[in-house]
Design goal:
alpha/beta, Rossmann fold, 6-stranded mixed beta sheet, 4-stranded antiparallel beta sheet, 12 strands, about 20% strand, globular, binds adenosine-5'-triphosphate, binds iron/sulfur cluster, binds magnesium ion
Amino acid sequence: MATTERLTATESTADTILRVRDATVSFEMDRGTARVLNGVDLDVKRREILGVVGESGSGKSMLASAMLDAVEEPGRLTGEIIYYPEEGEPVDVLNLSKAELKRLRWEEISMVFQGALSSFNPTMSVRGHFTETLRAHDADVEAGMERARELLSDLYLDPERVLDSYPHELSGGMSQRALIALSLVLEPNVLVMDEPTAALDLLMQRSILALLSDLQEKYDLTVVFITHDLPLVAGLADRLAVMYAFELVERGPAAELIRDAAHPYTRALLKAVPNLDAPLSTMRSIEGSAPDPVNIPDGCSYASRCPLADDQCLREDPGGYGAGPEHPVSCHHWRRADEAVPFETEVGE
Ligand SMILES: Nc1ncnc2c1ncn2[C@@H]1O[C@H](COP(=O)(O)OP(=O)(O)OP(=O)(O)O)[C@@H](O)[C@H]1O
Ligand code: SF4
Ligand SMILES: [Mg+2]
């Protein structure tokens, strides 16, 4: 029975802009090989907002870096990453030359790295950051600065004032918005943002999210929003992908996933949130801890924390089930998850 069920997990790929297959990142360490991204499959759909959520250390930043072949040495990335431009041939991201990769980053897929605020050069004005980026890509600086001003005002910033400022003269929220404008100045189609609001207060996080949603519509963007804060993205994302222990354990349309979460871990995350409108600090934690990337157990990585774990879970990889046609889940017993991990969550606006 399990075999037929597993065949039902068929996500349609027609409108895919970025396809990730079997993405794996490993580091050789003294105590063995650490697998910090473990065989991740994901399709990012054109013009969607995809929320990637998971607890700290689950591999979210590794996944983001993998998408742009930007995993730092000595990490080793294998698998397949294909970018599908609106017109033209698919691009095999892991086989690009340095120059092609430089063009792809910023001009097709742009990334706001985790902690990127600190990468602002303190001795250079914000204008300098924009002109330097435009020059580095041989773009028309005048037209580019026109776009920069438009983006800054889309983000409710006073363009001239911000361009004339030095990074330390801006508040956290202003810097983050300036960084988003910078990442969009070369007109990418995809924006990947890794914890872009983590350092900001709740109100600023929410307002940046609302602005992102407006930008997504205005510029036909595809947005991948990475966060450990499920309540934060729940209301914004079209689809959600949940990471646990270096793997994606469940993904699907956001509303369906919140209502009918099929993986015990997703359900535990939702159970930990009394109300999706509440700040993350009110979340209860989930007992136990995730496996060590050097010793990922056979079978299901969540088994040591899961109330449904049995022998099959300890032996067999739980990948490949479908809780709906667009809702893959890695759990042998997902049909029983709602009884085992009940929750009631109010989805806030
Ligand atoms: N340079 C490295 N060498 C070895 N292991 C690493 C290295 N960088 C990260 N890791 C490990 O890779 C795993 C995944 O890290 P990653 O940064 O992707 O997690 P994350 O989900 O982004 O966490 P956070 O929410 O804290 O940003 C973690 O276990 C981390 O300790
Ligand atoms: S496969 Fe088993 S251990 Fe893993 S989440 Fe499902 S029920 Fe729990
Ligand atoms: Mg991270």
